[in-house]
Specification:
This protein is an alpha/beta fold. Helix content is 52%, strand content 10%. The longest helix is centred in the middle third of the chain and has 25 residues, at 220-244. Residues 451-565 form the DALR anticodon binding domain.
Length: 565
């Protein structure tokens, strides 16, 4: 249910009744209980524009906001309008949500086609921690868009083309002849060995250069070797995706090589648009207010990343008919994408109404504030990080209860992987963040483990009751009223997170929800024998809705719940 949208509509209706054109409506959660459930703070901007007293306008507005969902509307301060939601209305809505299967969330009746471009590993190396944020953020956004009813296309734009692949497939052919495939188990080492051969053996280096030309010209033997190398590399990625619980498959791969045949066509389209200029033999697009052009073809005829990105945008626009493209890529690529997006729109490679977004994110840092590295300064393999998360999670839960060995293994994976993902998603994606094992595996604070514990506690209550929950929600106290408001805000939170591409909007909400529920649990006995049956049922319903909301929120973020901790 679009809770705040209903309130916004009532405010807009009230503005029309007093013959004042409504300005942009801003409804924000009140910071203190006495402010009411919501506070409209846009009156002063309206009053300033028409030269009126803010309190006079606020009073007129308050008198004309009329709805059975509201119990009271009052003016406060210099011109704020405090809005109180009626308990009867809340009870009715929550009873309906309890009986529904989808939280009464409206699916988009005119779904957009949204493409999420994320993860993007290079096929020459194993996935490392630098791929973690793109993979986690991208997958959560794709899950979110799908839940809200959009048509989602997941795409993994892998790096599988370029001069280095001549060297790699030449070395692959060599070890294939020697039947030494063990070297491929470690892609990092495989790359180093191939590079060593390239640097030390002239004949090998010449062969590698010939293979580059042969790959680009479609030589069958070289392409077979190239494909074998790509398949082996992708299997490493799939191992990571499986352990991390990421919804990317081979079918979602649209590699650089996919667009190779389109690159000359893109150059021709750019030339026809009149934007293409030649500078020092290179073909460039000069941007307004920037001294750095977008280079699309080097003087030797070679293409660049920008050319491939423009080809991808053109393909996604013309063939996939997208409405929105989300590029989940490191913030350091902001200038690149700004230039590519401007070029795509101005050259008509992409329709002007297609939303092109760089979903930028910051760097993962260690406790010292430096980029996350191994002790010897090397790159941390992502699979190793995830394995360590599972080991540490096992240590965290080992002493809490008597779990069977098999259950310990399952719980450790769920908690460890969930901790890594939630820690990333719980901060503003544009910020750098400190990777801290102790913090992310804590039962306190805004962590995945705190959320999983809250869910498990509710499941314990429901299991202890062990009966059919029925009846109507009946709110008995202020804390139950607040919990009801929070539960009904779920759809608003999801829509805001989708519009802004901010998963941390969801984690903040879940933490607030779990915190309010814990206060409710402490203040409102549920299973005591002297609790009236109707009150007991109402509180069980509130508990059940809370558990379902936590589970769905975590599910959207790609995190599993546990039934006991």
């Amino acid at each position: 249910m679009k809770f705040k949208s209903l309130i916004n509509n009532k405010i807009q209706e009230a503005f029309s009744k007093i013959d004042i054109a409504p300005e942009l409506i801003t409804v924000s959660d009140a910071s203190k209980p006495e402010f009411g459930d919501f506070q409209y703070n846009g009156v002063m901007a309206v009053a300033k524009k028409i030269g009126a007293n803010p309190r006079d306008i606020a009073s007129l507005l308050a008198k004309n906001i009329d709805s059975d969902m509201l119990s009271k509307v009052e003016v406060a301060g210099p011109g704020f309008v405090n809005i109180h939601i009626d308990n009867n209305w809340l009870e009715s809505q929550l009873t309906s949500i309890f009986k529904s299967t989808n939280f009464m969330i409206e699916k988009n009746q005119n779904p957009k086609t949204i493409l999420v471009d994320y993860s993007g590993p290079n096929m020459a190396k194993e996935m490392h921690v630098g791929h973690l944020r793109s993979t986690i953020i991208g997958d959560s956004l794709a899950n979110l868009f799908e839940f809200l009813g959009e048509n989602v296309i997941r795409q993994n734009h892998i790096g599988d083309w370029g001069t280095q692949f001549g060297m790699l497939i030449a070395y692959l052919e060599e070890i294939q002849q020697n039947s030494n495939f063990d070297e491929l188990k470690n892609l990092e080492n495989f790359y180093k060995l191939a590079k060593k051969r390239f640097d030390e053996d002239v004949n090998f280096a010449n062969k590698a250069r010939e293979y580059v030309v042969k790959i680009q010209s479609g030589d069958k033997h070289c392409l077979e070797l190239w494909q074998k190398f790509i398949d082996i590399s992708l299997s490493h990625c799939e191992e990571v995706y499986d352990k991390l619980g990421i919804n990317l498959t081979k079918d979602d791969v649209r590699a650089e090589s996919f667009y190779n045949d389109l690159l000359p066509i893109i150059i021709s389209k750019l030339d026809n648009s009149g934007l293409l200029k030649v500078s020092d033999g290179a073909k460039c697009i000069f941007l307004p207010n920037s001294e750095v052009p977008v280079i699309v073809q080097k003087s030797d005829g070679g293409y660049l990343y920008a050319t491939t990105d423009l080809a991808a945008i053109n393909y996604r626009n013309d063939v996939l008919k997208v409405d929105r493209i989300c590029y989940v890529v490191d913030a350091r690529q902001s200038e690149h994408f700004a230039g590519v997006f401007w070029t795509a729109k101005e050259s008509k490679l992409c329709n002007h109404d297609v939303l092109l977004e760089h979903i930028a994110f910051g760097t993962m840092m260690d406790k010292s504030g430096k980029p996350f590295k191994t002790r010897d300064g090397g790159t941390v393999k992502l699979i190793d990080l995830l394995d360590e998360a599972i080991i540490r999670a096992k240590d965290t839960i080992n002493d809490r209860a008597n779990f069977a060995d098999e259950e310990i293994e399952r719980l450790a994976k769920t908690i460890g992987i969930g901790a890594v993902k939630y820690s990333d998603l719980s901060i503003n994606r544009e910020s750098n963040y400190i990777f801290d094992w102790d913090k992310m595996l804590s039962f306190d604070g805004n962590t995945s483990l705190y959320m999983q514990y809250a869910y498990a506690r509710i499941q314990s209550i429901l299991n202890k009751f062990n009966g059919e929950i029925s009846g109507d929600v009946e709110l008995q106290s202020d804390i139950e009223h607040k919990l009801a408001i929070m539960l009904l805000s779920f759809e608003d939170v999801l829509n805001r997170a989708a519009n802004d591409a901010t998963p941390h909007t969801i984690t903040s909400y879940l933490y607030d929800l779990a915190t309010i529920f814990m206060r409710f649990y402490e203040q409102s006995p549920i299973l005591k024998e002297d609790i009236p049956a109707n009150v007991k049922m109402s509180r069980l319903m509130l508990s059940s809705i809370t558990a379902r909301t936590i589970k769905k929120g975590l599910e959207i973020l790609g995190i599993e719940v546990v039934d006991r901790l």
